Fold this sequence. Notes:
The protein is 34% helix and 20% strand. It has helices at 10-19, 25-36, 50-59, 119-122, 131-145, 175-186, 206-215, 229-235, 244-254, 277-286, 312-324, 354-364, and strands at 3-4, 60-61, 66-72, 78-83, 89-96, 101-104, 108-110, 125-128, 149-150, 153-154, 162-165, 198-202, 219-223, 263-269, 292-298, 328-331. Helix 6 links the parallel strand 11 (162-165) and strand 12. The mean pLDDT is 90.
Amino acid sequence: MTINLLNYDSQGLTDFCMKIGERPFRAKQLLRWIHQFGAADFAVMSDLTKSLREKLSTIAVIELPRIIADHVAEDGTRKWLLSVGAENGIETVFIPEASRGTLCVSSQVGCALACTFCATGKQGFNRNLTVAEIIGQLWIANKTLATVNDGDLVQVNKSVTNVVMMGMGEPLANFENVVTALDLMLDDHAYGLSRRRVTVSTSGLVPAMDRLRERCPVALAVSLHAPNDVLRDQLVPINKKYPLKELLAACQRYLPAAPRDFITFEYVMLNGVNDKITHARELVKLVQDIPCKFNLIPFNAFSNSGFTRSTSEAVRNFRDVLMQAGFVTTIRKTRGDDIAAACGQLAGQVKDKSKRTARSMIEAAQ
């Protein structure tokens, strides 16, 4: 059985090299070839000995998810549908801007948390992605977007400057694989991103937030979406297990280790549900002791969602209440909605196994 080297971070590759009788420095060479140059063929790794290249070709592979579809929206947003086997597909989105390029990465095939306004949650849950399937999304994006080609090699042109773990799935419910992928994103011999430019978004798995603070404190975004437990229980069911008081306490604990001096709260604006002035005022009181900023997200429709987008006026009024209270507040510009690549629209292809796996998934994150 061959070993997929995309599943290994620096330490994993070092252990692998020593196990096959090679010097530890070979791990750094492999990291650079695989992640900086986008090489998937050992034969092109010219600074490895011929005997090592031949050995690797018999015991290891660099195996990536297969691209099923590649769509580009009118605004330049690009979405890939990637096969992860067993008729399952995940979606990855690249959002280009003048000063940066952000890749939205998936962490699971579907999601068991079942947030009521999210297309992914409606698809159910199949399984966690492997490290190779997570970091492979960044590998594929860099390779596809690169502009400098030299035969089979690509010197990545750093099209992806930021990564947000906001695609399909709850990242902290796939903790070990996500953290290993984060290590690769941050490694100077791999992708070399700063902690400030990598963001993990969570619906509120409190124990895993504490583990992330200890293991790999990147920027943190919390999917809030409601100013009280009654409403949040309806919109974000995990709130019944980790209510707002516990969630906000975890945010306070995270801040001393965070690369930024604030937490980002994400708030999807649902018409007549959570977008009233009274909700905004309640929200101000809820987070008044937490250094934070707000990202208000216009709801992006999907089939049979049961929700509609808040009016532009309602969103502006909501924002004004938050800003008058001293909170930095942005309204996210909807990108890629013509190819169903906008926030909350990612659905992929999911063979649902939720009833069997949802509980074990949450327990594994603790």
